[in-house]
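Sample pair:
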Amino acid sequence: MPALLASYITRFLPWLIGGLCVIGCLIYVWYLRDQLKTAQGDIASAQSTIVQLSAINQQNMAALKVLRAEDAAWQATLATTLASDSQITRFTDGLLQTVATAPSKDDATVAPVLANTLASIAKTQGAPR
């Protein structure tokens, strides 16, 4: 009996191995197709995410452009204000220096130094004396 089995096994063993290889290859091809479908779904999802993120990026770039324009306007306003404040500070310091260095003879009920200071203020504001 073992000789009979050995004879059948040796006769059909190459076909059995070949059939198992074919089945293995078919299972592997099925696995690769499944992985391909999964990868294609992931690619489609990633592409839609890229489209959404690109739209958000465009909105952010537009907002950034607006913010940069506003920042430039604020910086220009700040520079103008600082220049104006510097001019007013120099003028005020000049008035205080004039009052501090005025001779005592200029002090009176309505001191001439006060009249000169008021005249300087009026001149600066553009009002006639």
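Residues 2-125 form one domain.
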